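Reopening this one. Same input as before:
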Amino acid sequence: MNFFKSFLASLLGTFIALGLISILFFTGIAAIATSINFKTVDSAFISENSVLNIDLNTSVRDRSPAFNPFGFFTENANGIIGMDAIIGSINKAKKDEKIKGIRLNSGLISSGWAQAREIRNCLNEFKKSGKFIYAYADFMSQKGYYVSSVADSIFMNPVGSIELKGLSSEVLYFEDFQNQYGLKMEVIRHGKYKSAVEPFLQDKMSDENRAQIKGLLDAVWTTISDEIVESRAISKKALEKMVEELTVTDAKEAITNGIIDALVYEDDFEKSIKAALEIDKDDSINSVEFYELNTQMKTFDSDVKDQIAVIYANGPILYTSGTEEVIGKKALNQAFQEVETNKNIKGAVLRIDSPGGDAMTSEIILNAMRKLKGKKPLVVSLGNIAASGGYYIACLGDKIYASPMTITGSIGVLAAFPNMRGLAERIGINAEQVNSHKNAMGYSLFEPLNDGFKNSTKSAIEKVYTTFKSRVSEGRSLNMEKVEDLSKGRIWSGKDAVENGLVDAIGGLEDAIQATAEMAAIENYNIDSYPKYENEFEYIFLDALSFIRLKIFNHPIEKFASELIKLSEMEGIQAIIPFSINIE
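Same output, byte for byte:
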């Protein structure tokens, strides 16, 4: 028995040691890799008559993630690719005479609609060079088909399935849950709001909220359907009938209705690529993966000193330093300071993909922007979502671009405080307080909000809301009455935001970069990304923990639990979109 215990202890110790050695080993690789200047990579290795492979069946975010050694354990690095890298590879392939076309697989792309459209637009520009795009998939989601529809020809597995169903959004409501379990959110909000934070206060959707979400879905679908119709040369009426009646669900129905061009298995698809390349059927295809190219959005030129900085603001806004996934005051402030002081940087683009968050952090970031504004061009590019605090930090831009699919606006402020008084009573916990003054307790997890705390918080919310509107009025040159009409927590599509003055123009990140260059009066420039994250080991370790959590603890209930966790983590006054909205 002792031998058995010793054996198990030794075995466990060995696994732990190997794990630590692996972490140190791969971290060492990361340190070496991140010190290499990948901007010097050229296309000398690309063979003549090549095709660029672009596989988008993974998660897409705006900025390529930092090198992660734990990514070796997953199929596609750490399972995330940057839209900047995708667009960079397409742009370079367009100019490289050795590359004759693109082999595209986007059937199961995981991205926001705005990102999908930017990639699709870039592919459309690639086609204008006279080169071909052939798309193939075994399965196609609606978003995957939208991207693929730009291709010259779409091929699909004969027994594949396809999704064309229109758009939907689901909002969770918590009132009954709170009443049943005695755990609730105490919400303080601006009195004129209609639909703001209603998921925490009632058990069903209000007519006002339903109307605004329906308007958003209709606006996004108009863009999707118009662009599919244009690319596929089918009628809008025919497409709407397919979607409304779900008449296209598999590959055979798709080809019958002109949605795709051919039903083939992947090996026969390769024959079509060879035909497009005009090579013999027995010859091998010269392929290059998109990540093998110099995937800067614009080819780096070492002889050019002028730069445009792209500052990425991705994730919720929190009162913290900031990471690649969280917008924090320290990281963004430092980025703006570096852009301001670097003489080679002639202008900046702030790329935002955020539902908002901490109001104080939003104001701090906006103040850093104000210091840069006027000294150098500052253009804002809105991604999938730039709502509430996400729009707060956008409103001072010299020019604001958005996708027609961007979710923006939600100009409003709230504060939410978890209260577990009911749950505590059920499990036998009683909290007693002793105070020197009647409002000394402030907020307690175990007590209803007292009048003094409520009134002081309401006053603070009113001040932040007024400040928010004044920032919008200042940045967008709108009077306060007009801003109030656009506020009250209402969300807008990018298209509607252009019409009501919250956004200047429809366009993507590349459009924003080009506008910045024109404002700075420069033609030749390099692009550099900010913020620069210094503590690489911390981020690598956190990514490793995230990988373990996703692989071991992933469960269908996680979506529901994560909503509650996000609510409980909100501290102080929030400029955040009051509910999670995901368009599928």
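So the earlier flakiness isn't reproducible anymore. For the record, The chain has a mean pLDDT of 84.
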